[in-house]
Write a structure and sequence with these properties.
By secondary structure, this protein is an alpha+beta fold. The chain is 27% helix and 28% strand.
């Protein structure tokens, strides 16, 4: 289990320093100024709440955070700090990133023009949790009614529309569709938020519990999900997906075991793991490796999660930009998921699905980053209107009514803490008098102290490593542990931190010294392909599809890989499809060695004259066992379209010799092709769902390289080639 990469050994004791009583009392004034209270148990333990104060700046772009850090506003050498504040060797900045920040990556969104909020930390102190609870528990809250902008029926119709119009037509594997509830709170917004914060502290399972008051905006939440962290040159992401809604009596062993065996819930997590591995490929040269899965239990529901860890030399701002935003709150592939969200949601997401980030330095002056996804988080405006957005991950076999129920369950914890009720539901118990509980298999017990919570969960060796996120006792049950362990059995050893055996083909790197050009067709699975190709010994370059034409000549004598992407391979009106088709046609014409994956495979099949059509049921994020030219293989599919053939051998115009076809015996669906100088796969060898994916990728590359004609070459692109390819 990897440690939480945000708090250094040098800084942790200082963060625990007790603050003077007035530091907390001044937050209760009518106008306390900007402040933040953060409970980050993985960074400083369960007994400390951090108090941060400082001016708040409204920014437009992430790059401006560097200037804020360097501005001298944050506490640093030579700048006085009040009693209880923690001096830093360089400026710390707390930032709240709205969803609109994806426009920096050129992605679509309903742009509400929300600013990026940055607080250069002028003062910092640690306050005992007991002191915070004792003071904030006396604050009143509750009584109001909350209502969704879309009722359950309207939301379910939107879910069905996304499944039918987007997933079924190849737009992507999964998408997150949000809806928003609102309520009117009495009193001053920051006091209402402080009351909610105190009650959220009593709920288990959060990665960050926090309240941030900027002066005119107030945010309060308990988010279960880390976004990305950086400490000592190691980056960590935390994909969380799959939801078990607790029955009224609390989580039950039988229900939890059923949840862990549910194919839909397993698929959801596998898909977001793949998507976050793509993100980590952008910030970690050697990619990331998985640890887990783990069970994360909250007040009303439980999730499954992994930790992904890899070495990174990027700075915090670059890492945040490359990881905007998590697939668990958007979908995959990410760029097209943003388009789908813009088509099916009817307004700005605001700060929902954005990020709260604390950028700092450790005792050695190295950059650190801790960040959490802004979910289960309410935004309160200056007149006391609370808005809370919640979403569900939609996959090919989602049930619309169940997804609507899931969003209600995700809202319940914060609604309970605020003493709010959904329209038509009974008033909840007074949150100030609710006792925190930890629920085991049918038994409610008082919430454990920090050391009890740690020892309640053991790894294989009987220890509970420092920094492991909080786990409930039910997670330690042998049947639960066994069910979690079974999740890894079908996964690719290459991406596991502790693989069950060798992950590279025997005999040394089979592609040592080979130049490989990878063409990205708007799915960053190409980043994972590049990492696997480098592990096989290749010198790899990734280029976007619209720039591929001018690079093809550089790949002469090497290998080209046409990567996956969303969309209908038959759609000649799509500029991206036309471009990839032109690249494939050029490779075929000049008999260059190439491999094609997923969309690339479909376009190759179309160029060879094979039939292309939509699958009866989308294969988005599913593992299948297939016969791959006589070899049994467990591989991951992400496709709504497929090629079809009636024979295992076909002759194609312009191709010397026969093309071998690996196809489904029942319906002729084509899984793979082999021809002179090329090999293709409908499945994704780079996916965590392809058990021996790297070995299959090596076979594809060897087949293409060893079967190409000796005279193959790709000439430099002419002007008209550059325009089309």
């Amino acid at each position: 289990m990897v440690e939480q990469p945000t708090a250094s050994a040098e800084s942790a004791p200082a963060a625990r320093r007790s603050a003077p009583a007035p530091a907390l009392e001044r937050l209760l004034r009518p106008d306390p100024g900007p402040f933040a209270l953060l409970w980050r148990p993985a960074a400083h333990g369960r007994d400390v709440v951090e108090l941060l104060t400082g001016p708040v700046r409204e920014l437009g772009e992430l790059g401006e955070l560097r200037a804020v850090r360097d501005s001298g506003e944050a506490a640093g050498p030579g700048q006085p700090a009040r009693p209880g504040a923690l001096r830093r060797t360089s400026g710390a900045v707390l930032a709240l990133l709205p969803f609109r920040q994806v426009t920096e990556r050129g992605f679509a969104c309903h742009d509400g023009k929300e600013p990026l909020l940055a607080m250069p930390v002028a003062e910092r102190a640690g306050i005992p949790v007991a002191d915070v609870l004792a003071r904030l528990d006396r604050l009143p809250s509750g009584g109001a009614e909350a209502a969704f902008d879309l009722d359950d029926g309207a939301y379910a119709k939107c879910v069905r529309r996304v499944i039918d119009e987007e997933i079924a037509t190849g737009a992507g594997a999964n998408f997150v569709l949000a809806r928003t509830l609102s309520a009117q709170l009495p009193g001053r917004p920051h006091l209402s938020a402080l009351a909610v914060f105190g009650r959220l502290l009593r709920q288990p399972g959060a990665y960050w519990t926090f309240v941030v008051h900027t002066g005119d905006r107030t945010f309060v939440g308990a988010t279960p999900e880390r976004h990305v962290c950086l400490h000592a040159g190691r980056a960590v992401m935390n994909p969380v997906s799959g939801t078990y809604r607790h029955p009224s009596a609390g989580p039950q062993l039988s229900g939890l075991i059923g949840f862990l065996a549910d194919r839909k819930e397993t698929d959801e997590l596998s898909m977001v793991v793949d998507e976050e591995l793509k993100m980590m490929a952008a910030v970690c040269p050697d990619g990331a490796r998985l640890r887990g899965p783990y069970l994360k239990t909250m007040a009303r529901l439980s999730h499954t999660e992994y930790l992904l860890e890899g070495a990174s030399d990027r700075d915090p701002v670059d890492i945040l930009r490359a990881t905007m935003f998590a697939p668990t709150v958007t979908g995959s592939p990410l760029e097209n998921a943003c388009r789908v969200i813009a088509r099916h949601e009817h307004g700005s997401r605001g700060y929902y699905s954005g990020v709260a980030a604390l950028i700092d330095t450790d005792g050695r002056g190295r950059d650190t980053l801790d960040s959490a996804i802004l979910i289960r988080t309410a935004h309160i405006d200056p007149v006391g209107t609370l808005r809370l957005s919640v979403g569900a991950t939609l996959v090919r076999h989602s049930d619309p009514a169940s997804e609507a129920a899931e969003t209600r369950a995700k809202a319940a914890g914060l609604l309970d803490a605020a003493g709010l009720r959904l329209a038509g539901e009974p008033q909840p118990a007074d949150p100030a008098t609710a006792a925190p509980t930890t629920v085991g298999p049918g038994l409610a017990t008082p919430a454990p102290a920090a050391n009890e919570a740690d020892t309640a969960v053991r790894n294989e060796h009987g220890t509970a490593p420092r920094g492991r996120p909080y786990r409930e006792p039910l997670a330690a049950h042998p049947r639960v542990r066994a069910a979690l362990a079974r999740r890894n059995a079908p996964l690719a050893g290459f991406w596991l931190a502790d693989p069950p055996g060798p992950v590279l083909p025997p005999g040394g790197p089979p592609l040592r010294g080979t130049r490989v050009l990878v063409v990205d067709a708007e799915d960053t699975f190409t980043g994972m392909l590049a990492i696997q190709l480098r592990a096989l010994g290749a010198h790899t370059t990734v280029v976007p599809h619209h720039r591929a034409g001018r690079h093809l000549a550089e790949a002469a004598g090497g290998l080209v890989v046409i990567g996956p992407g969303p969309g209908d391979p038959r759609d000649r009106t799509d500029p991206r499809i036309r471009t990839v088709r032109a690249v494939v046609a050029r490779l075929l014409a000049h008999r260059a060695a190439f491999v094609a994956v997923c969309l690339g495979h479909q376009i190759l099949a179309g160029e060879l004259g094979l039939a292309l059509r939509a699958r009866p049921v989308p294969h988005q994020g599913i593992q299948r066992e297939i016969d791959l030219f006589g070899r049994r293989a467990h591989v991951g599919f992400y496709n709504s379209f497929a090629a079809y053939a009636t024979s295992p051998r076909v002759r194609c115009p312009g191709v010397a010799g026969e093309v071998l076809v690996c196809r489904d015996a029942a319906d002729g669906e084509v899984h793979a092709l082999r021809g002179p100088g090329f090999a293709s796969a409908q499945f994704h060898p780079e996916s965590v769902l392809s058990r021996d994916g790297i070995g299959l990728l090596a076979d594809l590359a060897r087949t293409a390289l060893t079967s190409r004609p000796a005279t193959a070459a790709v000439p430099a692109a002419r002007d008209h080639d550059r325009k089309s390819a």
